[in-house]
Amino acid sequence: MTIEFHCPYCTATVRVGDDASGKIGRCPKCETRLTVPTIPEQVNQQESSESAPIENAATSEQIISNDVSEIPSLPEVTAASPPEELGQFPILSVTEDPITSKYQKRRKKKPSNSMTLLPPVFFGGLLAIAGFLYYLQSLHSYEGTLEASRQNFNQSIQVELQGTSFKIDDEIFSQIADELRDHPSEVRSDLVNLSFRAGAEGLAISLRPGSEAELVKVPVAQLKPVAKYYQDHFNELNDHRIAEMQAGLISLSSDWVNAPEGEKNSTLPNYRNSVVYNAFVKGLGRICYANVGGAMYPCVHEDGDVALYFLIPTGTESFTIRERSELDETPFFPSKFLIQVKVARPSMADAELVPIESEPIPEDEPNSSEEKTEDSEQEQKPEPEPEMST
């Protein structure tokens, strides 16, 4: 009889003879210490009884029919003694189960955890660094240097606002226009002079430099990345400007109605940034400001050529244009936005002294002064009296 079992460590199939039942040995594949499964003697006796002749059936019936006290006792079963020394089993044949052997090969090929994680982490880090560098290179640079030109000191900028364009109640906006028609409002400072009047169809606002400021023009469209970005995002930037301006006009209308008579015009300066400056600029001018010595000066106008106008202190030689950071939706530019501006002064030519040459007096002509002297002497010389004849 053959005993067949699987090694619990390497899952190899082991076949040994029945004489190795209960003995201890080592697996021929992984050399692990094993105990051969024990076959009970009752199974051997049952197998021998099944192979006995049919005549023994009468004997079995006779034993059953007799008294219980007459049943012969079973032989005493004892466990086989372990071998004195561990040795190899008498292997009859060793076969590899296709499923277990495949699993065993797979386990052998699997490296350690640290070695398997090292290549993905290394190459993943290289890919992340390469992607970040590519992202930085793909970003446009919104930095540059431009030259600003000074504008005429007496130049003013005008705009007219209509309430219907910003969903303001026509009745309230008409009241504001009527009040300003009778009592125009002026807001003056060292930086800017603002005038509020009634226009043909709404509220007319004019802007000009203050007593200690000058208006300069910066052609930011000369920087192609800035012009390209503004062209691609014009609607988005302008929508934010209109939304802020509309909210300011609604608040202004409310303050105007609630203000007592004679003090309504005093509410206008409170909306210089949200309403007035937004009325003169567009999307780009709203988010830019001039930095002069750490002080912030907002953009006061933006023309159709994407040139920005700033009111800066008189005599400023240079300043920078930056993106406003106090707005809720900024920053807009994907990378740093910084423009260095140099203010150009008109060149003045030095005064040149030109000598004045006197005209020469002709020699053939008598001196006019001498002629006048001789004429005066002749006039003063008395004429001789006529002689008396006797």
In short:
This protein is an alpha+beta fold and 390 residues long. It has ten helices and 17 strands.
Order of helices and strands: EEEEHHEEHHEEHEEEEHHHHEEEEEH
Uncertain runs: 51-102, 365-374, 376-390
Would you count the extended β strands for me?
Answer: 17
Q: How many separate domains? A: 2
Average of the residue pLDDT scores: 75
- Main sheet summary: 7 strands, mixed, barrel
Order of strands across the biggest sheet? 7-12-15-14-13-16-17
Helix residue percentage:
25-40%
- Please report which band the strand proportion falls in: under 5%, 5-15%, 15-25%, 25-35%, 35-45% or over 45%: 15-25%
Judging from the principal axes of the Cα atoms, what is the shape?
Answer: elongated
- Helix- and strand-based class? alpha+beta
Distance between the termini: 215 Å
CA radius of gyration: 58 Å
The number of helical elements comes to: 10
